[in-house]
Write a structure and sequence with these properties.
InterPro entries: PcG_chromatin_remod_factors, SLED, SLED_sf. Keywords: Nucleus, Repressor. The protein is α+β, with helices and mostly antiparallel strands. The chain is built from five helices and five strands; from the N terminus they run βαβααββαβα. A three-stranded antiparallel sheet has the order 2-1-5, with helices on one face.
């Protein structure tokens, strides 16, 4: 049996590299965790339809975020509820999430506080699709965007279009 060769101890120590500055070029990008964030802009000049109060909308921030997608989604949906002419009507248009981690939005009506859970999401696309569907239900297209809005008044829609949308919203309110 041959004995294992044991190497003699090194006589020169390893160089100390702790004092060498490291810049982004020497750190692999995979080593720096990047949190996914989203920023949703509010169009305060949008046609708000029959559900949202323009005075309350004017008090909203210019945007929500940049933050995690689930935080921005919660803030934007809560803003719609908070700006509602009737919170019950807006609250009923929001789709509840099930399973997984949740964030909550709340509304006060009929003398009670009501909670609704939204699924925590990590997808910017999901946030945009959810808000687009919500705005379509609220009859206030172009209320949210992932791009800043120009600060000029939009061309108002004709009286026939507005009246049709108002009547449809009234029928939906009557069904509540």
């Amino acid at each position: 049996m041959t004995p294992l060769a044991i190497s003699p101890p090194r006589s020169t120590p390893e160089p100390d590299i702790s004092s060498i500055p490291q810049d982004a070029a020497t750190i692999p990008t995979s080593a720096v965790p990047q949190a996914l964030t989203v920023c949703i802009y509010v169009n305060k000049q949008a046609n708000l339809g029959p559900y949202l109060d323009r005075k309350k909308v004017q008090q909203l921030p210019e945007h929500f975020g940049p933050e995690r997608p689930s935080a921005v989604l919660q803030q934007a949906v809560q803003a719609c509820i908070d700006c509602a002419l009737q919170q019950k009507a807006v609250f009923s248009l929001i789709k509840q999430g099930y399973g997984g981690e949740m964030v909550s939005v709340s509304a006060s009506f009929e003398g009670k506080q009501h909670l609704l859970s939204l699924l925590v999401v990590n997808s910017i696309g999901y946030v945009l699709r959810f808000l687009k569907k919500l705005c379509r239900n609220l009859l206030c297209d172009n209320f949210f965007s992932n791009q800043p809005f120009q600060q000029y008044s939009t061309v108002p829609e004709g009286p026939e279009v507005y009246e049709n949308r108002r009547m449809e919203a009234g029928r939906q309110l009557d069904q509540l």
